[in-house]
Amino acid sequence: MMFRALLLSLLLLPALANAQQTSPQRFGDMLVYYNTFNSSYLLPDIAATTGLTRGPNHGVVNIAIQRETQDGPVAVDALLTGNVTNLLGQRSPLRFIRIQEEESIYFVANYTATQRGLLRFEVEVRPSTGGTTQTLRFQQEFFPDE
């Protein structure tokens, strides 16, 4: 039940909070969906349960990976590593937390930004079933809570 609330928080609240939703990036038959949002949109108990930090200068990156099959899309388990870089070139690692509920798998990580600005994300995605490691790159403007 707690994970359902988390998934709802991760997927619905950012949209309601004007988080920038993007089309997925395609890597062959894999689709990588991603979004970012300010961590203050997470309920405190959800953040604590998953190990995410809430605060005015903390954001969350949310990633889900699917593979297209003849039977429809299937969640892909993977190992994710990455970093976020601000406009001054300061790089911070992303430490992804894997969340699974039934057939769905999500990867979330905190990042910190002390002021409004454009952030560059680079995430290495390695499917757990093997295959080529792919690099997801995107930019997102961060707005700290005021």
From TrEMBL:
Keywords: Signal
Record bears the keyword Kinase: no
Positions of the DUF4426 domain: 25-145
Pfam families: DUF4426 (PF14467)
Tagged with keyword Ribonucleoprotein: no
Gene3D superfamilies: Domain of unknown function DUF4426
UniProt signal peptide: 1-19
Protein name, as recorded: DUF4426 domain-containing protein
The species this protein was found in: Halopseudomonas laoshanensis
